[in-house]
């Protein structure tokens, strides 16, 4: 509620709510999976991180369109920038770990 009063535009509140729902969906998805299925879950987690990154970029794009500046100047825009950065770190790390896991199953005679 306090964020809604302090936000500079209604679209920022809407985009931040979308970001929050995406984070909640990701948390619920990861927590509800059996331990034996955590390896296939990595691909789904990367997709959820992609959604979070997209939400953060939309939040930053809305800010850039209204102010003409790419530098965040409000808490909601800083949260969008941080969300975008952390999501891309998570996506890159997920692909790196997935590649290393697939290498564990490669035979020596495979190309």
Chain-wise SSE layout:
Layout: H1 2-6, H2 10-31, H3 38-67, H4 75-104
Outline the structure in words.
- It is a multi-pass membrane protein.
- With 111 residues, this protein is mostly helical.
- It has one domain (2-104).
- The protein is 78% helix and 0% strand.
- The N and C termini lie far apart (57 Å).
- α2 runs antiparallel to α3 (38-67) and α3 runs antiparallel to α4 (75-104).
Descriptive tags:
single chain, 111 residues, mainly alpha
Biggest beta sheet attributes: none
Query: How many separate domains?
Result: 1
**Shape by Cα distribution:** elongated
The average pLDDT value, as a whole number, equals 80
Terminal-residue CA separation: 57 Å
Radius of gyration equals 18 Å
- Class inferred from helices and paired strands: mainly alpha
Portion of residues within helices: over 70%
H-E string: HHHH
Spans of at least 5 consecutive residues whose pLDDT stays below 50 are: none
